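Here is one chain, start to finish.
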Amino acid sequence: MKAKACLSFLLFLAVFVLIFVLWHMDDLEFQPKVKSTIIMPRVSTDPDMNRSFCTFQPLSLKDALEERLILNSTAWPETPLLPAPISLEQTSDPAHSTFTILPGRKGRQWHVGDQLEVMIQTSDFQGRPKKSGGDFLLARLHNLKLEAGVVGQVVDHLNGSYSAVFSLLWEGDAQVEVTLVHPGEAISVLNRLNREQPDRIYFKSLFRSGSLSETTLCDVCLRPTQQPQCNYTDLRTGEPWFCYKPKSLSCDTRINHYMGGSKENLLNANEDKLFQRGVNLKVSIQASGPATVTVLPQKEGQLKVKSRTVTSGPSGYYYQGVWRALGGTTVREFNESAISQCLKGKAVHMNGDSTVRQWFEFLNAALPDLKEFDLHSPKQAGPYISLDYANNILLTSRFHGPPIRIVVVSTSELRYIANELDGLIGGPNTVVIFGIWAHFGTFPMEIYIRRLQSIRRAVVRLLDRAPDTLVVIRTGNPKDLNLFVSLTNSDWHSLQCNKVLRAMFKGLNVHLIDAWEMTLAHHLPHNLHPPPPIIKNMINHLLSYICPVKGS
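Its structure:
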């Protein structure tokens, strides 16, 4: 009997251990050894709304470590918490803030190749100097007559003062321009919204079978309810996407994807005041003295300005309206004939958002022999295909996978960039272009990081099988801001996405076109879709990668 009792106890213990292991599988140290790369969202039932209801469990220890390192390296300086409710009077006021041009090494004399340093002091609405950092500032040096411009590198000293450093790259006058995009307190609000309200832009799908149809909410992750969910996580990339299951239809009857709308009244009256056009939303800061310097010719033997490093220096500048890259490749101008000759025999595949579609549209308009096929696709969503049969030029453009905020897209046309890249053979006559940023402005940065990780894996596979494939990545750009755009697609979030993008693809044989600096350095107003002169310069830069000057 004792033996039988002992055996029963051991059997019970074994079952208990098995249940414990299965229940706590996520927490065990050996879990990262699982080879699967699928990353599944995990919905938290924690009622504490200071935390996001959407948390993630990476199955790769390497990816999790990289995510943490990137988040740490791109962390924004924290702004001290103000007593609730937030008082506008204690936040940075561009009207009371100033910048001052500091003397150079030889007093007030500067030459081409020198650096110009500007000190910025922020003050609140009562004129009191700020004692903490965290404001989002942009700086530009420009000369409208010369159509010249370059971006300044802003450094936050975390005490209310900031530095902006400019490379002096042309002779003549150079005017400093400093802009407060958001006070630090506004950044704190945006950060909180991305954690607590990632579904403030919400998505829907139509389900239909015969005469029955139903529409439900969809997203990267959904708020916990009693309603079952349909799991549309991509089996190859692990990209998560979910919809609430229709009451009367199966998950297989989903036929489209679209943006359902946006939530309102996300801020209280005091927080609303942090996003006022003409007051503290993308407003210029004035100089306390001269705002312009005269740049003298480069002195003999003076070192030339080198290309940007990982952390500092401009990627290029405008002169006479033409973008000149600093390092990488020599950018030259392409007319219609030169574009056609450069792309002859090439297949150019573009993937991403509408800012990538702009490039497709520009090339379509620039080449009269390039004919677009009518695929009866939605005008904004695509996909698009153009062909110049005589010159053997193929151009394609396709939107990235969800989230997509544009028109209704058929589920059969929802394609993730990584899967599209895996479908390419590649080679010396293949050009791959992608840009993905504008539709991620409401989400925690982890979601964007994971999307880029899956794309990078596909890029690595493509370059492994076809090392001479040209891969070009378009960064995000600043845009016109109002309250709604600030809360759903702010320049701050776009800048953070650019930092992540650079970190993610550092060291790979890919080329970046810095749409951020090419927009910011130009004299034309910011726009989500930059105007034609900026797009033309971007296309010149792209074509200079495809057809580089020999020896450059």
